[in-house]
């Protein structure tokens, strides 16, 4: 059965922009974040405290975090892969971070330069430190429905890494179809394997739309009880370590589908679609939300 309401995790400012080769002004990022909040988005992944040598677009993480016009009831989160990232994030007043692991060894090496086991070891002190600072920690597992280097990924491996993050203290684990190769039945099977280890209400779906399957996959996992969905306004994005990957499922498309299912999000679809049009014009990218394009061409 479907959930009554869904919490949308807007990852556009981070996952959506991290792969942009030309520097985007910090002011544009801040305006994007505030427009999203104004549209009713209650959780925004604002930036990423990673190495600027690896991901140059996120080099202004401190400026972004420190200059947010914070609105009541909105969580502004950031990725932090190690103690150094956490420390920087804490200095900038972050209230929530996300750690990111992978269900694929090769992807882990390419993305964070260490094995899956090493990443989990590295995360343990980050989690402890975050918790003692009162900062909540979310976890990601990448490549849950396929890996750009290894191909098929066993659902058991996804379950194992998800459980490790959960047991370590992540309050929620977001399941990333990083390269968007999943299909609905496969997504359902993967989720079933994970949900045998972790309660459904601790899980989120983070689906990319590379093969145009993201909405169908979401429908499948919503039916299983997933109630947290990661998405990116205008479908912005891609991943620097997954060649050819397109962005996350577009937030506008998700909200439109959820509206049709009678599932609440608290988001103003018109305002969200306007934000998608605005940001794609600002950075010179096509709007990859079909709903956004349709609403804004009326
Ligand atoms: P490393 O090279 O193994 O670590 O990087 P290191 O400790 O040797 O540091 C290397 C350099 O980075 C050094 O600088 C450090 O000072 C610096 P240098 O001496 O070369 O000038 N450094 C840092 N700088 C700023 N902030 C930090 C930091 N840590 C080290 N926190 C590391 C390891 C993880 C840092 C690196 O591999 C990295 O930054 N990777 C970036 C990974 C990334 O951001 N990927 C994209 C996000 S994940 C994703 O998109 C998937 C997701 O959306 C889910 C899905 O779709 O599936 C979440
Ligand atoms: Mg992603």
TrEMBL record:
Uppermost EC category: lyase
Keywords: Lyase, Metal-binding
Catalytic activity: (3S)-3-hydroxy-3-methylglutaryl-CoA = acetoacetate + acetyl-CoA
PROSITE patterns, per database record: HMG_COA_LYASE (PS01062), PYR_CT (PS50991)
Pfam families: HMGL-like
Molecular function GO labels: lyase activity
The UniProt record lists the keyword Ligase: no
UniProt superkingdom: Bacteria
InterPro entries associated with the record: Aldolase_TIM, HMG_CoA_lyase_AS, HMGL, PYR_CT
Domain Pyruvate carboxyltransferase intervals: 6-273
EC number: 4.1.3.4
Pathway field: Metabolic intermediate metabolism; (S)-3-hydroxy-3-methylglutaryl-CoA degradation; acetoacetate from (S)-3-hydroxy-3-methylglutaryl-CoA: step 1/1
Entry keyword annotation includes Zinc-finger: no
Sequence similarity: Belongs to the HMG-CoA lyase family.
UniProt-recorded name of the protein: hydroxymethylglutaryl-CoA lyase
Organism: Halomonas flagellata
Origin organism lineage: Bacteria, Pseudomonadati, Pseudomonadota, Gammaproteobacteria, Oceanospirillales
